[in-house]
Amino acid sequence: MSLNLNHQPDMGVPQWYRVQVRDDAGNWSPLSAPVYGAVFPETPPRFAPIPHDAQDCSANAWPLNLNNLDPRVRQLAVYRALQRDGH
Q1: Does residue 33 have a pLDDT over 70?
Q2: Which of 12, 19, 58, 78 allows an S-S link to 32, with CB 3.0 to 4.6 Å?
Q3: The whole model's pTM is what?
């Protein structure tokens, strides 16, 4: 199953979002955690794009060092917030 959602909020106006889904048996999921976001004009990245199938990101390395990670870790996502409290 796929779902397409076309939501076009006003440019630069932050809004809160939550997600809830229903399965084929009619059961509703709990509401997701609230997420605060806005749409802003796109700007090109400062670095060259990395192909989606690249095996590493060494072409655009950050000054980010992570030590003593559990060897079972396979992927780490880093999210950026506009404020310290995550907003």
Answers
A1: yes
A2: 19
A3: 0.38
